[in-house]
Amino acid sequence: MFRRGLPLIIAISFGFLTLISLLFGIAEISNLILAWASFLAAVALLLGVINLFSVHAQRMAGKRPFGGHNVYSAVLVISMLVVFGLGLTDLLGMTSGSLNQVFNWVQAPLEAALASLLAFFLLLSGIRLLQRQRTLSSILFLVTAVLILISNALIVSPLLPASLAGLLQQLRDLIQNIIVSSGMRGILLGIALGAITLSIRLLLGLERPYNK
Amino acid sequence: MTVKTICQECHTPNPPGSKFCSNCGARLPKSTSILCPRCQTPNPSSNFYCDKCGSRLVQEETPPPSETPAEEDLPTSAKMFSLPTRKPGDTGELNADNVMDWLRSGQTQIESDESGKPETGKLPRLSDLTPEQRGKTADLPAWLVDSENEEFLIEAPEDITTEHFLNMVQQIDDEERRKLSGMLSDPAITGKGGKLPDWLQDFVQSVEEEKEAAAKPSPQPPPPPETPEPDDDDLEWLAELGPLNTDILARPKGLGGDELPDGPAESDLPDWLDDFQPPNTEMLARPSAPNDEPSVDAILSGQDVDVPDWLAAGNAPDTDSLSRPNQDWADDEIDEEPEDFPDWLMAPPDTSALEQPPQPEPDEAFTTVNTSAQKSVSDWLTGFEEEEEQEVELAEADFTEETFAAPPVTEEKVRKSLTDWLNELDMGEAETDEDSAEAAANLSAWLTEKEPDEVEADHLSFGETGPLPDWLDELEPASETPDAEQPTFVSGMLEDILGPAADIYSAAEPEAVVEPEGEFSAEDHFAAEDEPLRFDEEPDWLSELAAFDPNDLVAQETAVSDAQTDEFKAFDEAFELEDAPQEAAAMMTAVSADDQTDLADDDAEWADLDAILTGVDAEDETADWLEQLDVPAEGAFDSGLLADDEAEKPLISTGELPEWIASMRPGDADQQDSLLPSVLPAASDDLYAITDDLADTDLPDWLQDTDIAKPEKTAVPLASAELPVWIDTESDLGEPSSELESILAELPPALPPEEMLQKAEIPEWIQNLKPAELTGKAAADVDFKLETTGPLAGMPGVIKVEPIVAMPRAISPAAQFSITKEQQQQASLLRQLVQEEQQPVQSGVERPVTAGRSGLRFLLALLLLAAVAVALFGPNFLAGNIPTTVPPAAEAVYTAVNAAAGQPVLIAFDYTPAMAGELDHEARLLLNQLQQNNSPILITSQSAAGTAVAANLTASLNTPIIPLGMIAGESIGLRQLAGCVGQSQQPCQTLQGRGLSTEAQSALQNVALIIVLTGERTSLVNWVEQVSAANNIPVAAGVTQALGPLTAPYYASGQLLGYLDGLPATVALANSHGALANMPGAQRQYEAQSLILLAAAFLLLAGAVVMAAAKKPSKQGS
Amino acid sequence: MNDTLGLLIGFILTVLIYSYVIGDNPVYRLAVHVLVGVSAAYAGVYVLRRIILPVFIQLASNPLSLDSLLWLVPVLLALLLILQRLSRFSWLGDNATALLVGVGAAVALIGAISGTLLPQTMIFGAAGNSLLTPIESLIVAALTVCTLLTFHFTGKKNEQGEWQRPFWQRGFVQVGQAVLMITFGALFAGVLSTSLVLLTQRISFYFTEFMHLLP
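YS: structure for the whole thing
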């Protein structure tokens, strides 16, 4: 009971404490609690990284249940070790900025490349759309996408006569300012409502993600 | 209605059972189909009768959950029944009504028959019963409760509690003890084998003979090198063999000889013993290293396909518990020993493993049984063949499909619709995958919502089919003549256990085939066919008894190990395939959760966990179990029981346990492992030994009647499925050993019997457990899941906390967290609804799938790259003019920056290098402008990578740069930052606990403008909701084109002073202010954009039209 | 020289990633694993060095102040969070998680109400940066309501046993779905544009960089 009860008490009490202190602007309390929470979040992040390392180290070692000797895990572990080592040397002053160098040399290009790779797959999935479904919705979706792409491309194009470009721009603005903005607003409100619902449930202890 | 198999590629509904799409020829996922028990035809799970032979597939139609007794029965039944181990789909309820009846009857009968035997004294007399216990027995027929039979009566085990066992123990009279001591001194019992009781040694001996015998009823494939265990074990126990103990051997044999009037009766014997094989062989082949055993047992029992499919579905989170401390257990007891669940929960993947060996096993029973597992496996295997997490989810859906009306595709759609807008909201692929993954969990949430119905429905039907009245009728007159009753009560009990399964042997009408799942009936048929053959071959029933066990064990072990290795590779492959898109997602948010990986890797985990099933890994778990000695029963076992159990076994069992317990050994084995993990293997040895010995002693009774003994065969597995741990406990606690009594006496007061009850209260947490993977908790689980495979493996820490902290992300599954009736309604409504709206997610989620079509993809890539190359370096006849009119929102940013001239400006670099291609331009533009304005620049970010990006961009600036570092905790951290920003706020000496320089403090307090540069929805929304709303400091945003539409409403509402959405606006703004020179490459990229966009639009349109023309339209919502 | 080396490394890694266009292959997986390892380790090192250590430094600077003593609470909870890895003490870590949940819920609640719900509903008629005419604003309001109705799933069971929303909603929902589809189309176009910009940027970046390398 204690095991399950204590977290519940902590969650509810701190939740309402934060709520009240924020609502009534009791900065001392709110700042303290928020600082605690964000510090804990940072610790959790670090734990996650450590966990990642340990799991892949076990996979690399072929230790079960993580599977046989996984060379990719080995690569991952080694790269982590390198970065850890460089971070340590940076901390000790043996090297300077080596961590940023790794970031700029390895992480940045990889991330950018993966992100740009997205274009192919977006395009491909868009193409396969009608193959999957021929519904009014999908056609609406595709037509809108193509229309906006073309308008973005041609509005500024020298080839298109200004009148036509203006027409195209009006159409695009109509779509974006009226339909898309209302759709987005509806989505945002939906998210907010969902957030409110879940927050209340959490604050009332109806949801207990912390109870295992 | 028949559930059509929906093609993953073109969503064409295909006739049930088709393997390839009739439209696009793509391989179809194997849907969960019911194997026809008679003709083995896979039928759609919605079928009630076989399409081919018309035999009934499902027992009864599913009653609504409200009607099912589960809610009210479970609590009580849970008290007395522990975790059931079952064949897949056998969802017989742990319902007191199902078992009590034959328990009573069987009990009384045995007592009356074997009145000479010590049992008579064991059970609590009616007089001993506490009033409430009497109350419990109220539903017993009056004649049962009447006084002269009283001594034979046990209380109706409505409420078999620890006190009850204690009672039973205390009722052991002294002569009993003397007998015990006599037995102990008897060398025939204690003399040889050490580990094994003598009858076991005979058993083993006969096994040896059997092995040498050329003709084996079920020849088994030799164990592969992967699992040397079985061999070793065999050798081990072979080594332990003592000389044949003739007198023990003689006893049962004599019985058999005397009391077996006819051949068939004898022929039955081997068969029901045959059904005991797995546990027997477990016992025999158990490696002596104690630590291995629980898991080994669990596996073997698991191989007995005792675990229903839905458990397999609910399996994933539990497997996590191995390495991840965080999972949603609804029960404290479970918290105490999470390690022991995986053992039996892991069974499903293991059963799947059984199906692997390609060569059909002669032992049909097992192969047929395995087919069921095969289905489930293939289900979640499909999850890997497509590089899509939704496949996995489909697989999960398949588990519940029997009661779940909608075909997988609709479920997939639901999940999509749950998240499609979220996906689209985010440029971040990780975001989309994550959301969709969450939604996948949500979906499965309402999938499981149905599940109780299914389960309980089967329970109900199970309960109904127990022909309780029959045995009562037969029993009542027979009560005077015990012998006559023998058949009736056995059949009664068997039928109670089996339901119609028992009928299979009495008659082969279609109804007989009707069984919770066809496999068993098939298995039984085979067993029935085998039996004459076996009988002919094996003159001696003991050799019969032993014959099948070791072989089958070996067979199973080999099968498992084969399958394990195979599957393992398969899973590794699958996972690696799975990897690609995930990691594409992974990079977007550097170390963020990729739940697609989760869902997919659940299954990959199962594969990995097969490794555990081999018991290799078991040391860890058992080590943990042994730590947890606070469980009373365990303590008892650990402390004393092991010392003398070998000696006690025979007497205890013969004396204490009625024969029907003997038939429960499979169940016992499982419960021992799943329930009392810390019981030392030796202890579980005893349990098997006890029941085995019982088997011996009880044989005569069973042999007395043929048509009853036949059901025995089926009785065993199902009984094993039915019989709870309390029987074990009874056998243990019931031991007339003074040691055990002393142990029990020594039980610390901290362990009241209720504790035992708690331990036995499995069904409740099964209920919790089953949804735990799929319900809202699962949404949490999806977040909290530990990756054991994939590049994100082992990420629970971050993933656990991140969604909590980043509320918006955690929020999408909100509606699904706990499944209420409305939510179920919502889910089905949603299902209908979203049958028309799938596109956005298809663009977002199905990226992996499209990645699979390398041909088209490669062509597309070439065209796109060509367009880019031409646009960048070739003659760009379409080079877009830089527009002279700047979007007002963009202009507003510029004016805001200028308005803050000289005052500190806080810039949040909430983007990683992934988005740098577009956002760096905006950042450079704004940074240069701020530098010109001599505004001190406070720099922060919500990610470590963001701070590095900021450091690179601001390195060359000569205006004062005040790095605040990374703001951890997303919305929480931002809310705290908001408390430090602005005149109205008091200066913060520390930010998130780390000290701030006075310069930073004053700058924070005087911040005149906040600029958020991000490509992520959550980041932008957090800044707007937490910072902009918290104080009156103007906030401007620089976002990607993808995020532009989402930013617009906040700009329109005035929450954002302005925003730059992507390259065009940035270039236009820079151009209009002559700042374009400071943005290297921006103009070139912009000019190239128009051509590239046009090419993309053309490709999109043409490709879509061609595709749509090439393929016939797929019907929706089928 | 260093820059050249870095450029080459980056280029090679980029090529490895782009090899996914041909199909999933080992080098791609290699690159992705490197990415995950490096980024995770970078984040870990950063968090440890810039966030966690400074906290302890701050506490050590003035260990006896009330603030420092109060900070023992999160430090203790952090330890519990670490203990969570030991299954025996895992339940202790729940307390840290619980604190995060509670605080996060409160923050999210306030943020959602004050940051999105009220502003986005009050916007109609309120003076924002909206350039819409009153009629346009009314249309937007109506469409927004339709969109919201699309997300509103409560219905009755019809004779087929299917859940249906109230009939009066259905017309609006049709409109709302159309609006959603168009919105998603626009979002898709935006995402595609962004990814194309990123692709262009990558290619032009390496092109120009290698041009510079040429003598």
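YS: worth flagging: Chain A touches chain B through 108 residues (CB under 8 Å).
IM: good catch. Also Chain A has seven helices and no strands.
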